Amino acid sequence: MIRAFLLLRLRSFANQFIRASEAERVAAWWSLLWGLIVVVVIGWIASQVFSLLITVSNARHLQFVPVL
Fold this sequence. Notes:
The chain is mainly α. The protein is built from 2 helices and no strands. It has a domain at 22-60.
């Protein structure tokens, strides 16, 4: 059911893309490119935050000895 819905949406998008003008196609590709860049950047930031949280949680178990 979901697969059929997604295929229908993809076919609809493909038909709109075929009928679109050159400017609309270029705009669609740029939109797709910017969307992918945003997803990659958000994923990278989330990865860094997750890594930092793991580092902090592991550091809580360490005993820090002050050096005089």
